[in-house]
Amino acid sequence: MQDSADAASGSLFKELRDIQYALDRSAIVATTDVAGKITATNQKFRDISGYSESDLLGQDHRIINSGHHSKEFFRNLWSTIVGGEVWTGELCNRAKNGNAYWVDTTIVPFLDDAGVPYQYMAIRFEITGRKRAETKLREQETLARLGEMAAVVAHEVKNPLAGIRGALQVISGRMPADAPDVAVLGDIQDRIDGLDQMVQDLLVFARPTPPTMGQTALLPLISGTVSMLSQDSAWAGVEIVVPETAPTLRVDAAQLQVVLFNLLLNAAQAVGGDGRVEVAVDTTPEWCEIRVGDDGPGLDPAVRDRLFEPFVTTKHRGSGLGLATAKRVVEMHHGTLVADSGPNGGTVLSIRLPVE
Ligand SMILES: Nc1ncnc2c1ncn2[C@@H]1O[C@H](COP(=O)(O)OP(=O)(O)O)[C@@H](O)[C@H]1O
Ligand SMILES: [Mg+2]
Questions:
Q1: Of the ligands numbered here, which is closest to the C-alpha atom of 327?
Q2: How many angstroms does the Cα of residue 188 sit away from the middle of ligand 2?
Q3: Probe residue for ligand 1, chosen from 316, 323, 338 as the CB with the greatest number of ligand atoms within 8 Å
Q4: Residues contacting ligand 1 via CB (< 6 Å)
Q5: What CATH number does domain 2-126 carry, 2.30.29.30, 3.30.450.20, 2.60.40.1930, 3.10.150.10?
Q6: Ligand that comes closest to the CA of residue 319
Q7: 2-126 and 132-206 have identical folds
């Protein structure tokens, strides 16, 4: 009797071990206690997060929080599992090295006899690749819609703007130079120029022209772009460091200049017109990397993962098109553009272009 009970529980244990083995091979698993402290993790959890067991035990999941989700989101998650219900959703976490990764997550509360959770098990599958593909698709759809809109906008907005601007010039030309309204008209013209620039950005963005490649010495291109920016008195207080050497690459010089200008302008704006911006260049036989780093406040978590989408901006009068345009140009050059936190805070945008 005892023997057969042992045999039964032995095979039950084996079955449980087999299930755990299968789970550990397929999923990212962690258990936490009721206070949310991590009590166990499997190898896949440690691999993807980059943390060791001792980094993780006793910590709560804030250690892998990417800042992507709102407080409300986590409140909802917790109230679901504390109530004994299973929570499922997609979470963006951050690994020890700072990289974000997405996981499809199921959190199962284990209940005691009274129906109260005594521990939680989170089972996750990585979906970073799918999330990237979704973002790409969204970007392409937006782009296609924008392309259609651009023709209309060019006609319906740019032409009338030019007309209004011309009329204002005529009116202010008729006024005595010291008339008080001359300044007001000047302000209106400035605002119209701002609007016109925004429409222009939109056109450039929505109707990309394929790059015209030519051998281009990067160093004069970089210094030239820096002087373009420095001409604006708003950025007189920004110290911009340029590299000492840079290679010659086959690129569309005009388009690459627009990219560099956008990155430098963002950096100058990030440091609030008073700080340090550094352009650095690294070259290997395969690629050339141009980095624009600043010592500003760093990326706003609210837009961190959507920086390169059009119209994403944290600025009062931003168009949110600078980085979207830059990324598209770089990708048409078969390169990549990524944003990262700088080593001492601030932000670094890195353009990586293939070397032929
Ligand atoms: N160097 C930087 N430091 C901090 N945030 C940045 C930096 N560059 C870009 N960003 C963020 O990315 C957003 C999008 O930039 P961009 O596409 O150039 O549009 P815009 O400059 O019109 O806002 C900015 O509003 C800002 O929040
Ligand atoms: Mg910008």
A1: 1
A2: 23
A3: 323
A4: 262, 266-267, 270, 294, 296, 299-300, 303, 307, 312-315, 318-324, 347
A5: 3.30.450.20
A6: 1
A7: no
* CA 322 to centroid of ligand 1, rounded, Å: 8
Q: What is the rounded CA–CA span in Å between residue 8 and residue 11?
A: 5
CA of 181 to the centre of ligand 1 (A): 35
Of 235, 256, 238, nearest in space to 247 by CA = 256
Q: Where are the domains of the chain?
A: 2-126, 132-206, 214-354
The CATH code of the domain at 132-206 is 1.10.287
Q: How far is the CA of 182 from the centre of ligand 1 (A)?
A: 34
Domain 214-354 classification at class level: alpha beta
- The residue to mutate among 204, 235, 261, 307, having the most atoms of ligand 1 within 8 angstroms of its beta carbon, is 307
* Ligand 2 center to 311 CA (angstroms): 10
Q: Tell me how far the alpha carbon of residue 166 lies from the centroid of ligand 1, in angstroms.
A: 33
| Residue-by-residue pLDDT tens, the chain, 356 positions | 566 767 777 888 899 999 999 999 999 999 999 999 999 999 999 999 999 999 999 999 999 998 889 899 999 999 999 999 999 999 999 999 988 999 999 999 999 999 999 999 999 999 999 999 998 888 788 778 877 877 787 778 888 999 999 999 999 999 998 898 988 998 899 889 888 888 888 887 777 788 999 999 999 999 999 999 999 888 999 999 999 999 999 999 999 999 999 999 999 999 998 899 999 999 999 999 999 999 999 999 889 889 998 889 999 878 899 999 999 999 999 999 999 998 888 999 999 999 97
Atom of ligand 1 nearest to the CA of 324: 17
